């Protein structure tokens, strides 16, 4: 399932791409760049449903690192969400202080799994964007419709895997 942030991220990417087309005049480029900025701002105001959502918001707000992240004073909700996500993803300390049965091998496997899930989310979003931009695969033909349906199912599956991965971690932390 595509989240609202994922959907808006794809819209933002399309607006960014249109704004950078060489054939667009300066007025059109400015209008399209403003549209992309508006989409990024709207996306930043939405609550993230996962770390992937938050990562997509960061990519849009900074235009993939072209711009700096907003300050805590300028965007307190953005940073509150970042802190909440970080606290939820932070691994417990090693050793006796952790009082946890989580082994270093499990911790490493979990972190590798998290990285693989984030990559799958990104690849899924990129694949969806490419398919919707392709003339023959935009959903107007049976093949195009089938591919878009398959990509939606893939996105839903990746999100479900991410949710299960979080449940697995929480269960391991609980002992």
Structure description:
It is a single chain. By secondary structure, this protein is mainly alpha-helical. It has 2 domains: 1-90, no CATH class; 101-175. Helix content is 71%, strand content 0%. The protein has 6 helices and no strands. The chain has helices at residues 4-19, 26-45, 51-62, 76-89, 104-133, 142-174. The protein is flat, with a radius of gyration of 19 Å. The two termini are 31 Å apart. The mean pLDDT is 77.
Features:
mainly alpha; flat; 6 helices; 175 residues; 2 domains
Structural class: mainly alpha
- Rounded radius of gyration (Å): 19 Å
Please report the total strand number as a whole number: 0
Which descriptor suits the 3D outline? Answer: flat
Indicate the proportion of strand residues.
under 5%
Largest sheet: none
Task: Give the SSE map.
Layout: H1 4-19, H2 26-45, H3 51-62, H4 76-89, H5 104-133, H6 142-174
Helix pairs in contact: 1-2, 1-3, 1-5, 2-3, 5-6
